[in-house]
Amino acid sequence: MSQSLNIGIILGSTREGRVSPQVGKYILEQASNRNHNYEVVDIKDYNLPLLGESSDTKGVEAWNEKLDSLDGFVFIVSEYNHSMSGALKNALDSARESWYHKSAGIVSYGSGGGIRAAEHLRGVLSELNVASVRTHVFFSLFTDFEEFSTFKPAEVHKDNIQALFDQVETWGTALKTVR
Prior knowledge:
Blueprint: E1 6-11, H1 20-30, E2 37-42, H2 58-68, E3 72-78, H3 86-93, E4 102-110, H4 115-127, E5 130-140, E6 145-146, E7 150-151, H5 157-176
Parallel strand pairs: 1-2, 1-3, 3-4, 4-5
Antiparallel strand pairs: 6-7
């Protein structure tokens, strides 16, 4: 087998009361039997300033170092006003080359499964030379959460999650050869 990949499960929300940590934890648990290294990466931990609004670059430097250490990503994306959160967009914009030639899968959630947020994210990832994979896992606030706040995913998602991992790993291995 080829060298193990390091894949970051990126939590794409920073607001109080967010449910992305629950979703990220579940996705990490689903990756526990994989032959690659998965870890949760919370953008909230990096205290990223809005792009261009601060001369303090410590958070941005730490964020880029973390991204440099990863070969691929699984984005946990919540839908805000038909798109991704501003915090996730800022985190994407706070790096450039650190994203290049890596693979990404998307796990989204929202009242409509977060599908519109995922589609917006795909366009940004394309500009950053990130290959987003076809398989998309989406959770509904109505069927996969109790009272819109406690994550209780349906069993049906498990096969789709494994297919997403397969694709992120395949593309991540291939893209490693061009970095």
